[in-house]
């Protein structure tokens, strides 16, 4: 599940050009399987920021995400908000699917499109089990229902403590089409039943 810290109510804006989170977010998308998921080589891995972005595409619902370097080819599930303002996540019966926040930009539109996935579950690895192996410069393709494919290039990977989630950097509006891919990482807290960190990949089209 995803939880928001108790320091204030979190709100994800419904405007198609921005996804705004107020407060600090704590994302829980892992239940720990038998093996520890891969972690990034460093807490933050960055490449030069892409400066020649492609022209934004019209809105079209995404249908599949393909990331060859970490063996991901997965269908998407549209997510909204829970009654308390928390972001929905794919159910634990569908850990092989990636969730897309449907009230924000679609991948290819201007702004940050948000994709979330489980790292694992009690029964085995989730769709983003290998996200920690992703490196700047690698490709993420998003197939869309209008027949187009939006191609993104990763420019930053970071692992952050959940109580220090970089809300503005993740959800702040951008002048070009971007992606945010989020899952759990770091050490597993057996007492709390979740991972202590989040893995976040940033990509530009």
Protein architecture, described:
The structure is a single chain. With 205 residues, this protein is mainly beta. It has a single domain (2-50, 59-204), classed as Beta Barrel (Sortase, Chain: A). The chain has one helix and 13 strands; from the N terminus they run E-E-E-E-E-E-E-E-E-E-E-H-E-E. The longest helix is centred in the C-terminal third of the chain and has 5 residues, at 167-171. The two termini are 29 Å apart.
Structure keywords:
205 residues, mainly beta, Sortase, Chain: A, 8-stranded mixed barrel, two-stranded antiparallel ribbon, globular
Short description:
By secondary structure, this protein is mainly beta. Helix content is 2%, strand content 39%. It has an eight-stranded mixed beta barrel. It has a two-stranded antiparallel ribbon with strand order 1-2. It has a two-stranded antiparallel sheet with strand order 8-9.
List the helices and strands and how they pair.
Layout: E1 2-4, E2 25-27, E3 44-46, E4 62-67, E5 72-79, E6 98-101, E7 111-116, E8 120-121, E9 124-125, E10 139-144, E11 149-161, H1 167-171, E12 177-189, E13 194-204
Parallel strand pairs: 5-6, 7-12
Antiparallel strand pairs: 1-2, 3-11, 4-5, 4-10, 6-7, 8-9, 10-11, 11-13, 12-13
